[in-house]
């Protein structure tokens, strides 16, 4: 007998939290209790995530920053961050092409979370599945570098729908490439009308100020 056939009973179908969503919710609560703003950075391999983090750390000495580096293998990115004196944890996924909430939870005891203003998570370089795994972050930021082309919102719509901010990186390469910023911005806003699109070069510093302002105005 289905529940609908029992008089007086209203069937309620509730989405159960997946194991990842449950851990992500716990992570989010833990971060919020410590007033740590968590920014999850998603992009293709080589889009400029680590370079942007290094420029951000150098430009914001007044902020207490921590970093989680996600990579399939190696700790080369974490080593670069550690050289700046910034607390950093490397997560090696051992093959997985995204971070998940339990990985973040396991990294958390290695960071001085009570003493941080902001935690940047550099997700594994991948435009597809990182977006499907909530980590407990406060914000999602998507990076796209000029050499990748302005048609990426057509091909990877989910990431552009999920982000709170889009950063177009490697702006210094603009003279050599045919990336159409107006077309790209139009495509992004077709998917996500509220997401600001900022352009910058971590190499020259052009446009970096707007990103730094965005970070400062989104601290919890
Ligand atoms: N011209 C130019 N090159 C850049 C810029 N930002 C990063 N790069 C270069 O792009 C390459 C990749 O940069 P990373 O910061 O390592 O990129 P990533 O996204 O962290 O890469 P993965 O961690 O491997 O996914 C490096 O050779 C950087 O020097 C930029 O603003 N302009
Ligand atoms: Mg990197
Ligand atoms: Zn994946």
Compact description:
By secondary structure, the chain is an alpha/beta fold.
CATH classification, class level: Alpha Beta
- The coarse overall form would be globular
Biggest sheet descriptor: 7 strands, parallel
Could you name the CATH homologous superfamily? P-loop containing nucleotide triphosphate hydrolases
- Summarize the amount of helix as a percent range: 25-40%
Describe what you observe in this structure.
The structure is a single chain. This protein is α/β, with parallel strands linked by helices. It has one domain (18-217): Rossmann fold (3-Layer(aba) Sandwich). Helices cover 32% and strands 17% of the residues. It is built from eight helices and seven strands; from the N terminus they run αβαβαβαββααβαβα. The protein has a seven-stranded parallel sheet, with helices on both faces. α1 (19-33) runs parallel beside α4. The radius of gyration is 19 Å and the shape is globular. The model has no long low-confidence stretch (mean pLDDT 95). Bound molecules: guanosine-5'-triphosphate, magnesium ion and zinc ion (ZN). Guanosine-5'-triphosphate is lined by residues 43, 45-51, 77, 125, 169-170, 172-173, 201-203.
């Amino acid at each position: 007998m289905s529940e609908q056939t029992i008089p007086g009973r209203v069937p309620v179908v509730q989405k159960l939290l997946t194991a990842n969503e449950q851990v992500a919710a716990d992570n989010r609560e833990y971060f919020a209790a410590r007033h740590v703003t968590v920014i999850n950075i998603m992009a293709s391999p080589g889009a400029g995530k680590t370079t942007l983090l290094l420029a951000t750390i150098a430009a914001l000495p007044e902020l207490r920053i921590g970093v989680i580096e996600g990579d399939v293998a190696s700790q080369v990115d974490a080593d670069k961050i550690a050289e700046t004196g910034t607390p950093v944890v490397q997560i090696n996924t051992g093959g997985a092409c995204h971070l998940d909430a339990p990985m973040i939870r396991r990294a958390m005891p290695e960071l001085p979370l009570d003493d941080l203003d902001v935690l940047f998570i550099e997700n594994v370089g991948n435009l597809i599945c990182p977006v499907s795994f909530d980590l407990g972050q406060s914000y999602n930021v998507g990076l796209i570098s000029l050499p990748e082309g302005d048609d990426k919102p057509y091909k990877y719509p989910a990431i552009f729908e999920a982000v709170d901010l889009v950063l177009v990186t490697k702006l210094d390469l603009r003279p050599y490439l045919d990336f159409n910023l107006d077309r790209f911005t139009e495509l992004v806003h077709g998917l996500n009308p509220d997401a600001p699109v900022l352009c910058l070069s971590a190499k020259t510093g052009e446009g970096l100020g707007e990103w730094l302002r965005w970070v400062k105005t989104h601290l919890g």
